[in-house]
User: Which sequence fits this backbone?
């Protein structure tokens, strides 16, 4: 499995600090280096400097998540770096599917209003 095989550099992007902090906490406990960015511009700067091996893109409030994914892709040295969209529901987000993001999953607890 990608995230558990060795220490990775991971960028978590999202405008909900509590969710980003929870994601970072779990990943850091698994031994990964995590950076958090709360908007597209910050994500691009962090990605440029940190060169993550994976990006988690929270798409809940970012209505322009496709642009965020393209902006991130443009600064990542490794063109195969996975950008994984975290969607607010179990439905596929057409704005982030396909060639921009390598995968998607639903945010746990979102549909029940737990977050």
Assistant:
């Amino acid at each position: 499995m990608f995230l558990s095989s060795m220490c990775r550099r991971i960028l978590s992007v999202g405008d909900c600090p509590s969710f980003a902090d929870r994601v970072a906490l779990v990943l850091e406990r698994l031994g990964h280096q995590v950076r958090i960015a709360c908007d597209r511009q910050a994500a691009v700067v962090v990605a440029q400097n940190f060169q993550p091996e994976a990006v988690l893109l929270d798409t809940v409030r970012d209505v322009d998540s496709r642009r965020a994914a393209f902006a991130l892709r443009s600064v990542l040295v490794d063109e195969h770096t996975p950008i994984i969209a975290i969607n607010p529901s179990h439905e596929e987000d057409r704005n982030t599917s396909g060639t921009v993001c390598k995968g998607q999953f639903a945010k746990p607890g979102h549909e029940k209003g737990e977050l």
